[in-house]
Amino acid sequence: MRMTGRRESSNVDDRRGMSGGKKAGLGLAGIVVVVVIALFTGQDPTAMLSQMGAAETQQTEGRTEFTEEEQQLATFSKQVLAGTEDVWTAEFKKMGKTYRAPKMVLFTSSVQTGCGGATSAVGPFYCSADEALYIDLSFFVEMKSKLGADGDFAYAYVIAHEVGHHVQHLLGTLDEAHSQMRSMSQKESNRISVRIELQADFYAGVWAYHDNKMFNSIEDGDIQEAIHCAEVIGDDYLQKKAQGYDVPESFTHGRSAQREKWLRKGLTTGDISQGNTFALSDAEL
């Protein structure tokens, strides 16, 4: 993607290196214990508290310096998020609505969210409770090494997909779908989940279409990168890779062919009105 000179979003909470995404704090009881120990050992309690605070910060925040690759991925992610802000602000305006941009949280290993605690193992995700998307940038390295999905446009697709869930949330689609899923069997709930995810793929394509119109951002090979990424994160592909066979009733994101189809549709039409995956039968998806 052509990203040189593009702005970086300021809607970013960089928690990389923090343990669980936040500092724990000594608390009143902890401070009292430190003071008592200091008095019995003849040490300066103020100095002890200062030393423990510094140690705690080091433990919870971890490293604050990152490799060049990590910083490049962070910059790129912020630029992609800025691009989604520009595109969806314009698209919502066409619908007579106001776009409220999500926060992007960069974290390491684990994080606390409005939807509860999570680890990097779940991959990038969106939480509607705090309107934020969460990404451990090591996921992009895993994409390359374990799935063979590489390239900046493939990474952009992942971010744009999560922003797609935010668009669903703002339009009321996501909350309505989740409400329906709570009263369904697991099998029926999975069918709704597939429609949620395929629509988010479509919205990622819609974003790319308009981002390219605005910034001439798509280069030769970019679309192939995203399509390949969609293929290797399909439920059938991942299940066959893991266990040698797939179980369609357990699909929650859609088959590779479906994910590719809806991403392509968004990329070629740029028309948000053509992405109602909920109005289609399983065969039509």
Explain this structure to me?
The relative contact order is 0.11. The strands form 2 sheets. The chain has a 4-stranded mixed β-sheet, covered by helices on one side. The protein has helices at residues 27-41, 45-61, 68-94, 138-147, 152-171, 173-181, 186-215, 222-232, 235-243, 256-269, and strands at residues 12-14, 103-106, 110-113, 116-119, 125-127, 132-135. It folds into 2 domains: 23-61; 64-279, no CATH class. The chain is built from 10 helices and 6 strands. Helix 5 packs across helix 7 (186-215). It is an alpha/beta fold and 285 residues long. Strand 3 and strand 4 (116-119) form a beta hairpin.
What are the key terms here?
alpha/beta, two-stranded antiparallel ribbon
Which helices and strands, and how do they pair?
Layout: E1 12-14, H1 27-41, H2 45-61, H3 68-94, E2 103-106, E3 110-113, E4 116-119, E5 125-127, E6 132-135, H4 138-147, H5 152-171, H6 173-181, H7 186-215, H8 222-232, H9 235-243, H10 256-269
Parallel strand pairs: 1-2, 2-6
Antiparallel strand pairs: 3-4, 5-6
Helix pairs in contact: 1-2, 3-5, 3-7, 5-7, 5-8, 6-7, 7-10, 8-10
